[in-house]
UniProtKB/TrEMBL annotation:
Protein name (Swiss-Prot/TrEMBL): Transcription factor Pcc1
Cellular component annotations (GO), alphabetically ordered: EKC/KEOPS complex
Domain of life assignment: Eukaryota
GO terms classed as biological process: tRNA threonylcarbamoyladenosine metabolic process
Length: 115
């Protein structure tokens, strides 16, 4: 789904992060959404989507296409600099969330031992 152009926030970026399960995607969304954007010059929204809505090429998926396993983060900002600063902060937070999942989540630990 394409975002509508907003002349007040002309710079935009969509980040799709595939995760192993819908539960992990939902947990990441809930953990990341608690931190509000500090600048009124940046807007951010989160959602989870299925692989079917993100695939355009018709490639086969390992996960059921109805499961919302992709964390989608959409940014809009007034300038490219504000967008870059906001996304850098988001990436740091995302790194912490993924690190915690890797260390503590049973699904992720189970995937490591399956290999």
């Amino acid at each position: 789904m394409a975002s509508q152009f907003d002349p007040d926030f002309p710079c935009s970026l969509t980040i799709d992060l595939p995760l192993p399960t819908a539960r992990l995607a939902s947990a990441a969304l809930q953990a990341l959404r608690v931190d509000k954007e500090l600048s009124p010059l940046v807007r951010r929204s989160f959602s989870t989507i299925s692989t079917a809505s993100s695939h355009k090429s018709g490639e086969p998926s390992l996960v059921s296409s109805s499961e919302e396993t992709i964390l989608r983060t959409e940014y809009k900002a007034t300038t490219n600099r504000m967008l870059r600063v906001a996304v850098n902060g988001f990436m740091e937070s995302l790194s912490v969330v993924l690190g915690v999942m890797e260390e503590l989540d049973l699904d992720v630990l189970g995937m490591e031992h399956a290999d």
